[in-house]
Amino acid sequence: MTTTLLHGSAHIQGEGEDEPKVAMRHVRKIERNGKKVKSFYGDGKFDTNETFTELDKRNIEPKIPVHINASSRGSDPPRRKEVRKQFVANWQKKSWPLFERFRKKTPKISEKVEEECRPWH
């Protein structure tokens, strides 16, 4: 697979606009040039309401990890949705092995619980 750089910029650290604003400006320019951005990857610096709102307006899937202590309170709806999605995914990853151990020890009790949990597994 070949990758082509569509847009870029550079500045001295501590000067100029912050990275999320610059990145969203690049996304807008890329789309104005007729390209479709399907997903946006970034680190924790891009975990801002503005970034998630802009990506949601353009139907771009965010691939941005939210902060560990992120709260969905006070967030704009697109970021709130992502915080909750990542929280549930992390909770499932941690909790499902515990449930599996419980299920093996108490098979009759856990059958009903497993049926109720099946949609999210």
Could you walk me through the main structural features you see in this protein, from its secondary elements to its overall organization?
The protein has 121 residues and is mostly helical. It has one domain. The protein is built from four helices and two strands. It has helices at residues 19-32, 49-57, 77-105, 107-117; strands at 39-41, 61-63. It has a two-stranded parallel ribbon with strand order 1-2. Strand 1 (39-41), helix 2 (49-57) and strand 2 (61-63) form a beta-alpha-beta unit. Helix 2 (49-57) crosses helix 3 (77-105). The mean pLDDT is 78.
Write out key terms for the chains shown.
121 residues; mainly alpha; two-stranded parallel sheet; 2 strands; elongated
Q: Quick recap of the structure?
A:
With 121 residues, this protein is mostly helical. It contains four helices and two strands. It starts with 18 loop residues before the first helix and ends with a helix.
Radius of gyration: 20 Å
Distance between the termini: 33 Å
Task: Name the helicity range.
Answer: 40-55%
Count helical runs.
4
- Low-confidence parts lasting 5 or more residues at pLDDT below 50? none
Mean pLDDT: 78
Describe the main β-sheet briefly. 2 strands, parallel
Number of extended strands: 2
Biggest sheet, strands in spatial order? 1-2
How many domains comprise the coordinates? Answer: 1
The 3D shape can be described as elongated
Proportion of β residues? Answer: under 5%
Order of helices and strands: HEHEHH
Structural class: mainly alpha
